[in-house]
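To assess whether the prediction recovers the assembly geometry, we first specified each molecular entity separately, as shown.
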Amino acid sequence: MKLKKYFALTRCGILESLQFRASLLVMFAGNLVYLTVVYFLWKSIYASSGTNSVNGMTFHDTLIYLVLATALFNFMEMYAVWEIGRNIQTGKIVLDLLKPIKYRSYLFWSYSGSFVVNFFTTFLPTFITVCIVTNSAVPLGINLLYFALSIVPAVIINYSIDFIVGTICLYTESIWGINIMKQVIVMLFSGATIPIAFFPKTLKNIVNYLPFTSIYNTPLSILLNGNPQNANILTMLGIQVIWCIALLIVSSVFWKISLRQITVNGG
Amino acid sequence: MQNLIEIKEVSKEFKILNRREGLIGSVKDLFSRNYKIVKAVDNISISIAPGEIVGYLGPNGAGKSTTIKMMTGVLEPTSGEILVNGNVPYKNRSKNAQEIGVVFGQRSQLWWSLPLIESFRLLKDIYQIDDSEYENVIKLYKSLVDIEPLLHKPVRQMSLGQRTLSDILAAFLHNPKIVFLDEPTIGLDVSMKNKIRILIQALNHEKNTTVILTTHDMGDVDALCKRIVIIDKGKMLYDNDIEHLKGFFGSYRTLKLRLGENETQQTDVNLENALAKHFTEYEAISVSSDDEWTSILINEEKIKLMDVMKAVQDNYFIRDMKLEEISTEEVIRKIYEEGV
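The predicted structure of the complete assembly is given in tokenized form:
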């Protein structure tokens, strides 16, 4: 019974996403343009390097990685920061706070609908296309299951970071700059724009101690690894889960403290 | 009967940064710790019984919304005590949320791009309303307003009136004990206002829901509220029923006259002088005029209306006349302007 209210939110989210056919189409087209750019960019990078393999990754590997990273981004990105910021600025947050459901969960579950839609409209088609075009360079085996498992903490980590940044908006009452900064940091350090393998050694070390790699790099490496070793997978998942719990705690504590300070605009 | 809402000596202060002017001032503000304290609500006590409709009035910035936010649990009072249905709202916000419904005139809690029925279904699950109860409510709604065409219409395609109506219905959906309506009729046309007033009255009647209504529209107050609370600058000015308020201001009536053919602006000065000579207690009369009518506000405890009438008739040619009772609006304006 308790879950029902969350699924009701998911349902509305799905319905709402499907309302905007044009937006889905534009997203699809924009995605194609982006991938074309990525293709030519990395092609020229590899051409200028003069070798087939850079940092242990062939052009093929890199491209598959980045295409899937983009697909994953389209599927996981929630734009929750925008939503929180907008809710704060318009004062709509008052109405959301007055639901017998935590604001955090309310927001997450109302977005979960777009997860489902984006999974089927962007991630799955891209994944299948990659499999076909590359003649199944992506291994299809137990790694899919591990990938699915690692997506769960990845989504939660991503959302928690968004939520923390959104909470900062309570103080600043503006979102633009903060959100852009967050986006750049997450995209870069998570390995969504450049594979972590390409990072200089020191940066790689630093990034390893940050939660961002757990969002994109971990699921993708698991997905692209054909013969996974259990110990290896377990460590990766373990790190994800630890970050997941840590960020859940931080974000909800930060929110609780901040909410006490809230001064809602308007009225 | 047990009071549903109990507000005891509640105050709310806000810390506001003293903003400086200009570019340099704005830059300095980034580092400023120069706050001033603004008392939005100052020592207010109100008790509200179940089933009451209370009009909560005050000029803009009087502290109405702040009080409502404290009652809903979004804001924590700086001092004092609020109990809503036995809960301290800001401590048990979720629990309190189950018992209250809220409509903010300018914001909607409905899902913008979905048909209304989807928002209702969502609320049904969020508030965990039983199927049978939900159907009863929808049946009740259908008997009160013509919602069938609205139910399947996306909210973004609705007119403002339809949306407000839908928002009010959504707020009552989970059968809350209290509904807060913050300027529900703002920006609506006369017939829609009327529809919404009838709806609120009917819902209050059917479900014995307590309604707290803030508004600037005296029509709302006259149509719905027996009791009004007036605040200004955070302080409570008045808390009693409307009839008492009118009585409080004496038995005023306004005599409206249309005088002579050629008389213009000079009339009211002349008339006031003439009347001042005629009556010893002339402060009980005040004269004003617009393009068409010359209005004489008379305190009938001091001077008889017919005497004024006679005095005017002796000196002027009266083309037309009408008599008006003092309206709640005028009483409230008097309170806003002059205090009790």
